[in-house]
Structure formats: structure tokens, C-alpha cells
Automatic annotation (TrEMBL):
Belongs to the anaerobic coproporphyrinogen-III oxidase family. HemW subfamily. Its main location: cytoplasm. GO terms for biological process: porphyrin-containing compound biosynthetic process. SUPFAM superfamilies: Radical SAM enzymes. It comes from the Bacteria. It comes from Cellulomonas gilvus (strain ATCC 13127 / NRRL B-14078) (Cellvibrio gilvus). Probably acts as a heme chaperone, transferring heme to an unknown acceptor. Binds one molecule of heme per monomer, possibly covalently. Binds 1 [4Fe-4S] cluster. The cluster is coordinated with 3 cysteines and an exchangeable S-adenosyl-L-methionine. The keyword Transferase does not apply. Keywords: 4Fe-4S, Chaperone, Cytoplasm, Heme, Iron, Iron-sulfur, Metal-binding, S-adenosyl-L-methionine. NCBIfam families: hemN_rel. This is Heme chaperone HemW. SMART domains: Elp3. Residues 24-271 form the Radical SAM core domain.
Length: 412
């Protein structure tokens, strides 16, 4: 099962936000995340807030979901206007899940149209949907492109059948070149998502997956280390000794191989786990998260952030549908990020970016700790001196969490 919602204060039933969220809003981009909480099967490693048809039960359905999400979008427009926020067109939309493309393309387009009606889409807005390789057809991808989508992110995960089987992924790896071609023929930009560190995956297996992804000619690749969360089916398999997780050295070797092959193919890293052919091919929606911009998260369990206020929706689609049907906000709780929390988030997110962080943006205490990180070859000393920027070395990327702890004073 997916993790519990965070602790926080009760959210008002109408979703109203304090006037303070409007301060500085013109300097922050505004994006929308649309969560589609449905999958045909639940993968054993997944702890996202997703449901199969069997798990969904009565009172909510995939067929009515788009209409329910549209109600929250309309609520969001009223709430932001009521808080005094200036009109800001949506610069990025990201449809995630789950598997968004288990819904008909027309439903996804209807949700996007509602976003446009509520806030307007900026010129050149990036509009992405996630998809499984076995959940699309040439016709469905063409319909998404015609409806305003600009980008698709396929959950490739691996090109090796036994690795996909361990992950309980259902697609045939031979389908990847086909779906990439279909998407490009439709005019969509394409990203491939990979996972490394699956139990039983060798370094040669991982090389096979990377080379297969690069052979498609895509302009964006994400490569994430597998994290096995408590409560998942895979966690139970590990606990029973049925699966053995790789050690840290194995994970590091696979990250370094990914960086070598992707960089060698002309894709540069712009965030610790993401590589793009040019800055224009980077995922602008994710960059907005990492830079602390504003976004409204639509859907069960979706999280939002506007002007230092965070909130999260009820998790189950039935509860989500019921609250909106009653004219209530689906928010389950919220928090106001204090100055200390905002500073820590700034470090956690900023250091992961290839552009690094200006040295002047660090506190005096944080700057005093940088010398030790340079000595440990976690921070690039040349960039520090020549550009006065804190930039991670590749070793630092492998230990980004440690860098944050040291900078924040938690490691001393």
C-alpha cells in the first residue's frame, strides 16, 4: 500500500488559502500536476497512490474520473483568485500516475482543456503525460498530440526480460522502439524512464538497458535507483529472502555507467537522475518543483504548493469523488513552510541541479562547511573559485543527501 499522508493542520473545507500566498507570485512559475490513480496491475515495487479496478471498489470509477478532476480544477481557479493571486498562465502540465494512459486519450485531453479554461496555457507550455509502453497506440498518441500534449514519458525501466519480470512490469521490451517512433511521428517529445538496482540485475544487464534506450535516439532519459519501500510486495520478498538487494557499490557502478554512456551519447546531466540532449529538452515541470515554484496538484493524494503553503488531498478515489461531489475541497491537510524548512528545501533541491547554487545564496554557516566538501571531492573546487557556485562532482552526485546533511550542519 502507498504511504500515509503527512501530518499537518486541518485544511479548510473550501480550500481557501491565506492572502500571504500572493506575495512574490509574479516571480514564480505556475504549473499543474494531474494525478491519474489507476493501473491495470500493481507492480511489486510500487508505493504510489494507485489502484487497480479490483482495488477501486464502488463509488468511484475510471470512466467518471476526468469529470471529477475537472471539478477540482474549477475549485482551484476559485481558490487562487480568492487568495488574491495574479492571473498566471500555466507554464507546465504533468499528468502522472498510476498509468494515465489507461484512460482514453479524450479524457486526458478533457482534463487539459479544463486547465486551459481555468487558467490559460502559456505560449509554448510543456504538457507531459506518463505512459506505459503497452498502454498506447499510434492513434492514442496522435490524439494526445492533437489535443495539446507536447511530451510523453515512457516507463521503460529495463530492456532485459528477467529484470522486467522481477519488477512485475507487463510490457515487451521489444515494443520500446515502436512506441518512441509512434510518439515522434505524432509530434511528441519523448523521455524514457529507467530503473537500476533491481535484484538480480547485473552490470551487463544495465548496460543493455542503457544502450537500448540510446538506440531509440531519445532526447531525455531519467535513471533512478530502485528504492524498496516498506509495505510493498517487493519489500516482503526481500524480507523473506526471496530477493537480494544490491549493495551501495553496485548502485554506484550503475550510476557511473549511466553517466558515462548517456554523456557519451550527447545527453548532459541537468539533475542528479536526469539527462537531456540540450537545455530545451529538460523536463521544465520537474525543474519547477526543484526551483520551488507554485503548482496545483489535482487528484487523490496529490500534493500542491503555492506561496509557501503545501497541502495534500485525500488518498482514495472514493473519498476524493465524494468530497468534490459535496462541493468541498478534497484537501486532507496542509502546512505553512517556515523559514527553516524553506532553507533546508532550498539546499535539498538546489544542490541536485547541474547549474549548482550561487555561493552567495548560502548562509555564512553553510559557506564555512563547503571547504570540507571540496576536500572530500564532493563539491567542484574549480567551479567554486571561478564561478562562485556550489556544484557537485560526480562523486557528490552519488552522495547528494550527505552533501545536504553536511551543509545543513546535521553531519557535524
Amino acid at each position: 500500500m502507498s504511504p500515509a499522508l503527512p501530518d499537518g493542520d486541518a485544511a479548510p473545507s473550501d480550500g481557501a488559502l491565506p492572502p500571504s500566498v500572493a506575495a512574490g507570485a509574479q516571480d514564480r512559475a505556475f504549473g499543474v500536476y494531474l494525478h491519474v490513480p489507476f493501473c491495470t496491475v500493481r507492480c511489486g515495487y510500487c508505493d504510489f497512490n494507485t489502484y487497480t479496478a479490483v482495488e477501486l471498489g464502488g463509488g468511484a470509477s475510471q470512466s467518471s474520473y476526468a469529470a471529477t478532476a475537472v471539478r477540482e480544477i474549477a475549485l482551484g481557479a476559485r481558490v487562487l483568485t480568492g487568495a488574491g493571486l495574479p492571473a498566471r498562465p500555466v507554464s507546465t502540465v504533468f499528468v502522472g500516475g498510476g498509468t494515465p494512459t489507461v484512460l482514453p486519450a479524450d479524457d486526458l485531453v478533457a482534463m487539459l482543456r479544463a486547465v486551459d479554461d481555468a487558467w490559460g496555457l502559456a505560449d509554448g507550455a510543456e504538457v507531459t503525460t506518463e505512459a506505459n509502453p503497452d498502454s498506447v497506440t499510434p492513434a492514442s498518441l496522435a490524439a494526445l498530440a492533437a489535443g495539446g500534449f507536447t511530451r510523453v514519458s515512457f516507463g521503460m525501466q529495463s530492456a532485459v526480460p528477467h529484470v522486467l519480470a522481477t519488477l512485475e512490469r507487463t510490457h515487451d521490451p521489444a515494443r520500446i522502439p515502436d512506441v518512441v517512433r509512434w510518439a515522434r511521428d505524432a509530434g511528441l517529445a519523448v523521455s524514457l524512464d529507467l530503473i537500476y538496482g533491481t535484484p538480480g540485475e547485473s552490470l551487463a544487464d544495465w548496460r543493455t538497458s542503457l544502450e537500448a534506450a540510446l538506440a531509440t535516439g531519445v532526447d531525455h532519459v531519467s535513471a533512478y535507483a530502485l528504492v524498496v519501500e516498506e509495505g510493498t510486495r517487493m519489500a516482503a520478498q526481500v524480507r523473506r529472502g526471496e530477493l537480494v538487494l544490491p549493495d551501495a557499490d553496485d548502485q554506484a557502478a550503475k550510476y557511473e555507467l549511466a553517466d558515462d554512456l548517456l554523456t557519451g551519447a550527447g545527453l548532459g546531466w541537468y539533475e542528479v537522475s536526469n539527462w537531456a540532449r540540450t537545455p530545451a529538452h529538460a523536463c521544465r515541470h520537474n525543474l519547477a518543483y526543484w526551483r520551488g515554484d507554485d503548482w496545483w496538484g489535482v487528484g487523490p493524494g496529490a500534493h500542491s504548493h503555492v506561496g509557501g503553503v503545501r497541502w495534500w488531498n485525500v488518498k482514495h478515489p472514493r473519498a476524493y469523488d465524494a468530497r468534490l461531489a459535496a462541493g468541498l475541497s478534497p484537501a486532507a491537510g496542509r502546512e505553512v513552510v517556515d523559514a527553516e524548512g524553506a532553507a533546508l528545501e532550498r539546499l535539498m533541491l538546489g544542490v541536485r541541479l547541474a547549474q549548482g547554487m550561487p555561493l552567495e545564496s548560502l548562509t555564512s554557516a553553510e559557506r564555512r562547511r563547503v571547504a570540507g566538501l571540496v576536500a572530500d571531492e564532493l563539491v567542484d573546487g574549480r567551479a567554486l573559485l571561478a564561478e562562485r557556485r556550489l556544484l557537485l562532482t560526480r562523486r557528490g552526485r552519488l552522495l547528494a543527501d550527505l552533501v545536504v546533511r553536511e551543509l545543513a550542519g546535521f553531519g557535524s
